[in-house]
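Mods, move this if it's the wrong board.
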Amino acid sequence: MTQKLINQSLTVIGGGLAGTEAAWQAAELGIAVKLYEMRPQRTTPAHTTNHLAELVCSNSLGSMLPHKAPGLLKAELRGLGSMILECAAKAAVPAGSSLAVDRDVFADLVTDKIESHPHIELIREEVTAVPDAPTIIASGPLTSNALTESISQLSGQEYLYFYDAISPIVDHETINMEIAFRQSRYDNGEQEDGDYINCPMTKEEYLRFHEALLTGEKITLKEFEQEDPHFFEGCMPIEEMARRGEKALAFGPMRPVGLIDPRNGKRPYAVVQLRQDNLVGSLYNIVGFQTNLRWGEQKRVLRLIPGLEEAEFLRYGMMHRNTYINAPQLLQPTLQYRNRTDLFFAGQIIGVEGYMGNAASGLLAGINAARLLKNQHPVIMPTNTMLGALCNYVTHASSNDFQPMKANFGLFPAPQNKMGKSERYRWYSERALTAMRRFARTNGIRYDRTVAEANLAEEVTKNR
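Not the wrong board. Structure tokens:
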């Protein structure tokens, strides 16, 4: 339930996952929010619509399984009342144990939520300087040059950056299903309604495809992007991965484990997977195939994939610069700027990776900004929760070689007792949800245990 409006206001810059979640959380706690989104006044190289929370890379929000790190983060966020997760659930498309969404439906839902909230004013303007008033900066990896310069002047810190790449999208009707087959990993190979479409490759087909990736012509980076073209591992372009060795792809995004080609009953040498990208099932994105090849080259090279010989590509891959601050030097674990308590940062600009990581940091920034304006202490999430561990990492990592990070169990210290990996992961999850529940109760934070732990209970029952 939305709390009564208090006589304080908050500026949120950026209408992506982090910004919309932050605005929603603060507004629900009784804060009047001005949410600034520069599109359509100014666009970016990656966005194609004017909607809030537009997903420009994959349409997958990661695993839903509570004993997986992304699933644990979702469980925590469900308990904390994440607006982004609520919208994602309504826009979900089949993706096995992962949460994937119809991009347009999802963005429509988030935009409607924000526009209809009585405490949020959506302003379609570019913010060119850091405001002097209470503010959350969630402007994302494509922060405008003017705001970037303002933040740089404020912090005195040099910006870091990496490159983000987007996967191509294929028209489903143009996939040759006489070669490609539907199957999710590790089903019995007899199902015909798996959540993924798989394009199998023989060794000869794989080697031909690998060679084409190596020789394909890439888009020339802009001058300002050529100074230090290093890539973040989570969005490595497929052609760059191919340069690591002949088998790098076969053991990476093209690994065939858990899949059986129904034509011969055998496991392929390699496989390319496609995942449904919209509710009606007319669009499929090529999983893990971010690329910076020229568009003509993409058409040529990707049509070497068995089953995609006549594929129509409705969106080609692309790569763009992705900017983030040196968070370990600039931010507290509350996501407050170290030299100004009423300034918060959230989302990819702080070095948090993954859609849900972005939303999670926005949720915490929104809650803490609201607490500050209500004369309450901002909170530091427990480091044995996934949200707390993620925020702890980006604010305590080495600032000399800081790299973006997504939710993973490596952020937790190992338990004292020896455990197998599966047992350890379940132990992490149970401990995290218990810690989050107690922390929320102690600090007066809204938390719904039933919603948070529903999937965990199902997993426990299933594994007894």
